[in-house]
Specification:
The structure holds 2 protein chains of 2 kinds. By secondary structure, chain A is mainly α. In chain A, 74% of the residues lie in helices and 0% in strands. In chain A, α2 packs parallel to α4 and α5 (69-80) runs parallel beside α12. The radius of gyration of chain A is 19 Å and the shape is globular. The N and C termini of chain A lie far apart (52 Å). By secondary structure, chain B is an all-alpha fold. Chain B contains 5 helices and no strands. In chain B, α4 runs antiparallel to α5 (86-103). The radius of gyration of chain B is 19 Å and the shape is extended. Chain B starts with a helix and ends with a helix. The chains are: A mainly alpha, B mainly alpha. At the A-B interface, α3, α4, α5, α6 and α7 of A face α1, α2, α3, α4 and α5 of B.
């Protein structure tokens, strides 16, 4: 077996524990999409083409609120801006790869795979170590497609009165638990949330997600700058 | 109806956000400062989805009185802080939401 394959398998093994929370997330996405009247084929196409949980849920949320295509697209772009950071970290280790491998590794780059690969990259000195990200990403992909499919199936069974759409804010709260312990993050969280809530009806074109996010990031820039000055 | 072309565009934006830095960066271009600010991206974006989904009803009206979602979300935050576990957070919130709805 080649070295690359061993590293690929290591990626699969390392990311596996992180797949447990992805299961309900994928199912919730499938159920919500069907509830909103999307066809099973369209729902599946979203998971394969976009392959990003947060992006897909934001898409659904804004679509059901009647937002325009441009607002949906730019909000998905804002949600994705965190990937720039992941790509920047991986780029150190992909510069010698062929373009096709760069494309493949990029497509499979998600939060969970980055979390474990980032750790592995720091420990390993292997020249092919970036294939760890590929293995972890493929694992996430399989779980995401399977759970979307389960959600599509359950979507026609689960009654609407169960209020499963409430699982969406809960899922995002769960993704923020680590940041809830940091004061600066909590300030940004509250301000962004208040702007989105009170701007929901006021901000035109349902652009409340992007407006709140941009103001939240600007606030983060100011707050972190202040912190640097205070410490230095 | 959801337009397939919109899904493809969103897929393209998502892919480019992942590919751009891998494609263009040769060496480390991100400073610690940019890195720090980017670490705030989830804190800046996710509340814009969380808060309206809790405080607003289907018509965009503010619901504060006897809104079960506020209590259930508070329970989820509490369990999240204590356990740091994603599944526990989601299901503590959902369970308390159902309890409130069906008991009161």
């Amino acid at each position: 077996m080649s070295n690359k394959f061993n590293i690929f398998v290591k990626g699969i093994v390392d990311v596996s524990p992180l797949m447990i929370p992805v299961v309900p997330f994928g199912i919730i996405f499938g159920v919500l999409a069907i509830d909103l009247g999307l066809s099973p084929a369209t729902t599946m196409a979203m998971s394969i083409i976009i392959f990003g949980g947060a992006s897909q849920i934001v898409f659904l949320q804004l679509f059901s609120a009647g937002a325009s295509s441009l607002v949906i697209l730019s909000s998905v772009g804002a949600v994705n801006s965190r990937h720039l950071l992941y790509g920047a970290v991986l780029s150190e280790h992909t510069s010698d790869l062929k373009m096709i491998w760069k494309i493949i590794i990029s497509y499979f780059l998600v939060d969970q795979s980055f979390a474990v690969t980032n750790k592995y990259l720091k420990q390993s000195s292997d020249k092919d170590k970036v294939f760890h990200s590929f293995g972890a990403g493929v694992t996430c992909w399989m779980i995401w497609q399977t759970t979307t499919l389960i959600g599509i199936f359950l979507g026609s069974i689960i009654p609407e009165e169960l209020g499963l759409s409430f699982a969406v804010p809960l899922t995002f709260i769960a993704l923020l638990v680590d940041d809830l312990r940091k004061l600066l993050n909590v300030i940004v969280i509250i301000i962004s949330g208040l702007i989105a809530t009170f701007g929901y009806e006021i901000i035109p074109f349902k652009a409340y997600v992007i407006v709140a996010a941009v103001i939240g990031l600007l606030l983060a820039m100011i707050l972190t700058k202040f912190k640097v000055f205070r410490n230095g | 109806m959801v337009d397939l072309s919109l899904i493809i565009y969103c897929g393209l934006v998502t892919f480019l956000s992942r590919y751009l830095m891998i494609a263009i960066l040769k060496k480390e271009m991100f400073t610690d400062r940019i890195r720090e600010v980017l670490s705030f991206v989830p804190s800046a974006i996710f509340p814009a989805i969380i808060f309206p989904a809790i405080f607003l009803d289907n018509t965009g009206m503010f619901v504060f009185d006897s809104n079960p979602k506020i209590y259930a979300a508070a329970v989820a935050v509490l369990f999240g802080l204590i356990t740091k576990n994603v599944i526990v957070t989601i299901f503590s919130g959902l369970t308390s939401y159902w309890l409130i709805i069906y008991m009161f």
